[in-house]
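Student: Send me a single protein entry containing the residue sequence and its fold in token form, directly below this note:

Tutor:
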Amino acid sequence: MPLFTQTVSGVCSNELRLDRYIAENLGLLSRSQIKARQLTALVNGKEVKISRLIKDGDVIELSWNEAQPQHIIPENIPLDIIFEDAATVIINKAQGMVVHPGAGNWRGTLANALYYRRLEQGDPCCGEGLRPGIVHRLDKETSGVMVAAYNDEALAYLAGQFKSRKVRKIYLAIVGGIPRESRGRIETCIARDPRDRKRFTASTKGKYALTLYRVIKTWKNHSLIMLRPKTGRTHQIRVHLRYLGHPIVGDSLYGFTDTAFPDARLMLHSKSLTITLPGEQQARKFKAVLPKRFIRMIHCLNTEG
């Protein structure tokens, strides 16, 4: 039975139902999974119902039943493995790969590839099907470092570090224009855009989000920026750079048509991830090499008139 402990933070309103906090802020389980997997909860040491209202500073302790195996089709898809052991795998995800099967994307995902890999390695658990192990997600068009787990215990251990903000994530992005400040912080709440349900937007309501940034290099009309998201909201970096006034080149959802690079795809890359692996005491830093699309674009920008 996986266990999870955390001090509540990031509740933009004064109070929030515990089940909503688990599903929407933590992302550990959906609200239907909370019931199906018989989650039990303690708040400040006392057992409570999942409808209990919580606030920043409350200490929550959660436990739930293991997931039933998922019916994922194994597929022999090459992966760029940075590190792997019996519990954890660190991948340099390619741009264009969907992380987990879903509507319209049941094949060709990272989960399909990982299932095949474990079957090839003779993992006895795979006879029962692949258990969910996606600790965090990268957008389809975002490349770079991400971590996945091979069992529920590793999943809970790794996810706990993301939710308590102990994981250090560094991204690189090429954006349009040159930010006024060479470094700074972007701090907003993020909510779903009421005009377009596929998008999110910076708002006074929603989930608290914080991104630190530093400009690495500038050209005439573009900048290379290093970003450190302190929270992990959906599309956070893309939303925050749009909010800053410098959307990412190639971002069809939050960006613009860049006349210098009209055919560019999303120029966002997860450069490094620092996390403590199950069974270890010290955090490790895992890096992904700079993708060719970045090298090509930087070369073009360096040689522009």
Remarks:
- The two ends are 61 Å apart (CA to CA).
- The domain at 81-163 is CATH 3.30.2350.10 (Pseudouridine synthase).
- The chain has three domains: 3-63, 81-163, 168-302.
- The mean pLDDT is 87.
